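Researcher: Re-running this chain for the archive, since the previous output was lost when a drive failed. Same request as before.
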Amino acid sequence: MREIEKLAKKLDALSHPLRLEIVALLVRGEMYLSEIANHLGVSRALTKIHLKKLEKAGLVKSRIVLVEGEARALRYYILQDFEIHLTPKLIGKVRGD
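Model: Regenerated structure tokens:
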């Protein structure tokens, strides 16, 4: 994938207010799906859709933890470190101009 496509994917993932709120929550540390949904006041299904978009862009990672003594698992999400400083000149460099 070209660098400009990677940048566009990250910007697209950050282009929704709910996803920005998820990023802000994850700054505090690792959280599991239901915990994030509860903090945001939205359904787990909607939260999962937004988390998948952030994960595909490489902004968050997830891991599954089996709950000891129970037949269930929790999916935890953690924010990946990133910095985006955007200028027209930078976009030109990423494009290869």
